[in-house]
Amino acid sequence: MATVPTPHRTPLRRLSQGSLFRLSRSGAYPDAPHGLGFLEPALGELLDEAEALQSNVEGLRNLSDALSTFNESFASWLYVMNMNALTTDWPQAPTDASFVLAKRRAEQDAIAAMEALKAAELAQVTPPENSSVAEKTSYGSEVDGESTYGDSPNTISSTTTSAPPKGILKKKTTGKPKLTSKEKKERAISIERIVNSLPLEFRGNDPNLRRHIETVIEGFMDREGRGVGILELVKPPDLNQARVNKCLIALVNRKIIRKDNSTGAVLYHWHGLPE
Asked: Which residues, including other chains, have CB under 8 Å from residue 125's CB and lie 6 or more apart?
């Protein structure tokens, strides 16, 4: 006898632990409402979470809008700066030719100042013609008084030209005073002390700057007791006016020299290293 096959049956689906139906029939909640009343508290919690989610999404959207505004503004600023750099010309900006021209002008000014200083020194050294003529006249009168009455004018003039007195028509020579070896040694020690009291750039590894400051200090020591102008210390082409001015600023700041412009001309007076 043939057996009748049993019909296929779908197994019952297990209830999930969080299902609303199980929640309504759970004994853990004896006070749970019957029917659809258990949906009220669950939907209330769902509403609260949905509102929190909405507020968070709104915050993210506001942040995105702020970042978009900032990015657009910053990009516009960068674009404007780039266009400004590409389109704006600066005709007054210095070029390489400007620096070469400035250096050439500084050298020309230094040479002109040195020539003017030499001309002034030569004018001080060379006596005027009137004084030399007066000296010759006075000397001739002295010889005339010492000569006898029988001497002729030719004899007097020959005597006058043959043996002129020493020192009357001789030019005065000015220059550095000759120093003994002891004085040179003492001056070198004094210069060394003064240079060591100056900033590091004057006593560092740059021998040219140290030589410049030593030359300026020697110029003050040679002219001690009077005011010294900046042009008197210029020695082109190595020691121009700009380098002398830099050395003078360092000495004034250290109070080794004093700047005075009360007479209308800028003069520097030597004080020496303060104790």
From this structure: 171, 172, 173, 174
